[in-house]
Structure formats: C-alpha cells, structure tokens
Design goal:
The chain is of the alpha/beta class and 742 residues long. The protein contains 32 helices and 11 strands. Among the domains are: 147 residues, Rossmann fold; 151 residues, Rossmann fold, CATH 3.40.50.
Amino acid sequence: MELQYKTRGMTNPQGKPRVYFACRQEDFKTAFPLVSEDLLRYANCAIWYAPDQEEAVDLEELYACLDEMQLVVLAVTSEMIHTDNRAKDVVLRYAYEHHIPILPILMETGLAREFNKATNIPIQVVNRMVNDPTATPYEEVLETYLKSVLIGDELAVKVRDAFDAYVFLSYRKKDRRYAQRLMHLIHENKQFQNIAIWYDEFLIPGEKYNNDIQAAFTKSKLFAMAVTPHLEEEKNYVMRVEYPLARDREITDRDFQIVPVEMYDVNAPEWRIDQNNLQEFKYKAIPKLQDEHRESEMNQAFLDALDRIAKKENDGSAQHRFFIGLAYLCGIDVEKNADRALKLIISAAEDSSPCFDATEKLADMYLTGDGVERNTEKAIEWQRKLCDQYLTEYKKHSSADEHKGFGTKCFRALIRLSDILKDAGRISEATDTAEEALSMTQNLTNEVGRREAERDTAVISTRLGSIYQSLGDLKGAEKCFLQAAEAYERLSREIGTARARRDLSIAKERLGDITRKQDNIHSALEYYKTVYDIRSELAEGSESLRAKRDLSAVLTKLGNVYKSSNLTLAREYTDRAYKIDKAIAEEERTDQAWDDLGVSLVKQGDLFKEEKQYEAAAEKYRKARGIFKSLAGKRDSVQYRKHYASSCEKLAGVEKRVMSSDEVIKLFDESVFLRQKLYYGSPSDETAHELAVATFNYGAFIESKELIEEAVRQWEDLCRTNPKYEKYRAKAEKALKQLQGD
C-alpha cells in the first residue's frame, strides 16, 4: 500500500509524530485540505494518507501501517456514518480494537450522537463547525486533544536524549515485518531497553533523504542488518548505500561494529541465505550472520558490540523511565510496545519521588485509549492522583518566597478532573471538585499574580455555572456566571485586550441565556445589549470572521427575544445579522457559511409571516430553500437535508395563501419525501415526529384521509415511549374526524 504524507512545508516526515487520516472517498477532496491544515497548525506531525481512500489494499499491510500510528483522524460526514466505507468499517474498528487513539472531526453540526450510535464506539468527537460563541472553540478543543496524544518537538528531544545509545537498523522495504521483529527481539533483553534503534520509518524513496540517513548513521555506534534473500537482489539501497557506509565507518572507527542477523521463518527452510555467496559477491567482509532463532548467541553478539560503545549513564530516575516509556508508547526511535510503555510510565508515576508528567500521561492514555483500553474510571483515578501529588508539593512550597507553581498546576488538574467527572455523568463529584478548584484561586495570587488569579476565578466560575445549568439549577448557574462576569469586567477595564473583552461578552451572553430561561426577558435584553456593544466594537474594522460571527450570534438572539414583543426591533436586529452572514458567506464561500445565511433568511421569513406579509415571507423562504437545496445536492448531509425539508414546509405554509394549489402540493410532496429519507436514514423519535408533522400538513392541505391516518399511526407509535407526542396525535385525530364529517 503506497501512502503519501503531508508535513509543515513538506519537510521530511522522519521522526515526526505519525497521524493517519481517513474519510469517505467522496469527502476527501473537501475534507483533507481543511483537516490537515488544522492538524499541522497545532502539531508538527506527519499526516499519512492513501490518495484513493477506497482503492483495494492488502489488509495486513494496512493494519501494519496503522500499528505504527500515534493517532487516527477521521473526517466525519453524515454520508460517512450511514454508508459503507473503509474509514468507518475498517480503519476506525481496527484502531479502536488495538488501542490507537482516534479523533473523529465532525465536518457538519449535530452528528455526535449519530456517529456514536452508528459505530457503537464511545469516543470523544470534535465538531469543526462550532458557531456558538459560548461553546469552547474548535481550535482550543483540537489543540488540547493533540497535546494529550502527540509528543511535541521539545519533549521529543528530551525523549531521544534519554537513550543510552543508538543503533542504525538497515533493511529492505520488502522486509519491514522482519525489521520490526528484529527490533522487538533486541529490546526483549532488558539490557538493551534503553538503546534506541533508528530506522527509516516508511522508507521514503528519493536521494534527497540521504542527508537524514547520514545524520542518523553518524549518531549510531552499531549497524544492525535484517538479512533476508531480498538483500541479494541487484541495486537495492542497502547494497548501494547503507552497507558501504557501514564498511567504511568500521574501518576508520574501531568502536563501530556491524551485526547482521538472518531473519527467516523456521517452517520455511528454503528462505535461507548463503553467507559465503553474500560475503564474496554482494557484501564484502560482512561479519558472521547471527541467527534470530538462536537468541542467546544473537544477544551475546549485540552485548559484545554494545560493550564497545561509550554509553550514557542514566540515573534510573522516574523522569528517565517516563521518557523511555513515552518512546515505546509512541514508537520514538524504538518499536511501539504499549505493554512495556505502560509498565515504565506507571513505575514513574508511583515512584517515591514521582514524575508528575507520567501521572498526567496515564490519565490521558486511559481517557483517549492510547496504548490501553479506554477506561474513564482509571483516567479519573490517575487524574485524582495527579491532583493529590501537586497538592502535596504545593503545601511544601506555598510560601510567597518559595512557591514553585504547584498551586497553579493543582488548580489546572482539578479543573480537568471536574471536566472528566462531568463527562462521565458523576455530576456531584464534578461540582465538588470545581468548588475545590474555586477555593484554591483565593490563595494563588502570590504564585501567579492578581490578574491571572482573577482570570482563574472567572474560568472555574464559568465551569461551575455550566454544571449547575446542566442540573437545571438556573439560580446557581446565574450566581456563577455573575462571578465570572465581574472578574472579566475587572480584567477588561485593566488590560483592555480583545481577548478580555470577548471573554466578558461570553460571560454576559451566558447570563442573558440564563435569565431568558427564567423568563426574565428585561434582564436578558440588557445582557444581550451589553454583549452587542462589546462585539460591535470588536468587529469594527476587524478582519476576523470569528468577531463577525460573534456579533451575528448576539444580533440573532436579540431578534429572537424581540419577536414576541416588538416586531420592528426584531426585524432590525435580524436584518443586521443577515447582512453579516451574507458578507461572511460571500467572503468565505464555505458550505457552513452558506448554511448560516440560509438560516438567517428563514428567520427573516418568520418575521414577515408574523406580520402576515406572506409574499415577503415566501421570497425569503424561497431564497433559503434554494441555498439548502444546492447544499443538499452538493453534499447529502443530514443537516442540509433537514434545513432543506424545513424550508420546503415553511414555504408551503405561506405559499398556500398566495400560490396555486399545484405548486404548493409539489412543496408538500417534496418535504414528505425529504423527511422520509431522513427518517429511514437515521431512525429516531425526532425524525419520526418530523415525518409525522410533514405527513399531517400535507394531508390537511389536500384533505387526504389516508395521509392523516398515517400521521396518527406515527404519533401513536411515538406515544408508546414518550407521552409528549400525545397532543400531536390528539390534534391529528380531531382533524381526521372533521374531515370525515363526524
């Protein structure tokens, strides 16, 4: 299987964290450029991919490739979820079963539940299309996840520096599995576990990589060869370049040694090599071949060679074990070995002088399924242990003259523990942990300064408010959001940065949302107006699309609130949101931007409908329908089909007052067809209800007893598990009786 790669500036991928990208073939042209750009912005990695996502491949070769990866990234669309494709049915399944971290990136909104339901794999997904200003930005979620899985450049240098010595492994591409087996055999001996083995990870063709091979060769003190009959084939790279380099080095450097190991399967005696022929004609003066199946002799050969190497003296500390554990976890200059990595990292975390980074990594590993089976309970255990470790050190070094940052580290660890507990449904513990973190902020001023402590207070208050909101405790949430807003207000006055003002606008928007849910419309409007003032200032003269989207979001909320009390003001705010969305769509020209514009048009149409201006409403709905129809035709996504169906229904609802019956019937017929497609593609209470509504409206318009009866049956089915649909069933039965003349 021929893979291609993408790196920053298309530099050599050797030594970079390995990421495998997969998607539905039809999505590749759109998804890969976007996702790869996102990944490379936050991680200096190598993204490997098959140019043809559905080309026939040797599955064993694909699996061997995936085993080398540190992360599998999937670009998820609704079609990818609901159709057969290699990304979902093979790559995802294999990665999950073999404990390779998986990051599904949703290319459309509202797919998280569908994805988890369809795959039956409970993993974190990241939504690329986040337009809610109060939600954690996609970029922040992505960056945090990548840092938890991939090893950054600075840490990779420390890991490589932890090895005692380097061995250069030479092999043919055809013999990749033998090379990996040789690495495994070498490292089975505990005396060699701190020895790095450099090898060309994917044997990229081209002479331009000779410099990289030369650099690795110079750093190495031992030249190991995986010897098979493939080495006898004419003009191979080992014969032409690598072995001659080793022979020249051996002549001039008495400490350098070549150790060739014959690799073969014991039940294939024909797969052997004639050393005399190899030595005489192909590889002059090659030393005696070691036999992989005579491990004691092979190990002794390596021991003799390594005894001549000036090895580093490591201190055997927890930190050193952590670095070597990371090397085996990620395959940094050694083969990937999750079991060995886990033992080393656990020993580092449980040391009497623990490595805190090791404890944090264990929480990450169990949370993401990195080398281990995903286990939220174990992730919580290790994250809690990390909090305790930091707290112990903080108590030792908490004076103003002695603080070493452990308080802040403990605070950050508590926030993360609270987040994990919340996601696990352990809300009470999440609340207690967040409260503990909040109480810490009062004592961190000496460590981080007043302003940073103020920001910490705002961050954790927002977290607590979200927890209370999820519990339905709106008063508790309001209190927390008020505390956050007050902190951000002080920061905004003092430093006045765009970030501080945006943070303040988000806190105020949350307060507006909470008070609106409490039916305190006056307070909600006041909060939203404050948000509008801040975001207007931030967007003025700014080229930032996020600033413009933030402004559009609050204008839309103001329009929604005024819709029930002042249609003139509702129209003013909705029209301004529309103008922003239109400008963004014309500038960005992405599907999501056009979808946002379609939603704005629908909201304008809704206001005209409220004012009984049916012609004007129809014009807006018609334009929205055109956008959604184009999007649904371009990409058969659930989101676009829902919006398309809804716009048909809304247009039919007003067109029946101003157009001929034939045209309206076409719209109703189209909406029912779209709702059927949505329901059968993704059966749920929601899609069943939407189909019933479309069927009923169509039946009521053409006075069809059969269609209304069908809607009644659909709601009867829903009522068996959810009584909230009873009112719809009753309404349909009443309409049916009237139609029958009862």
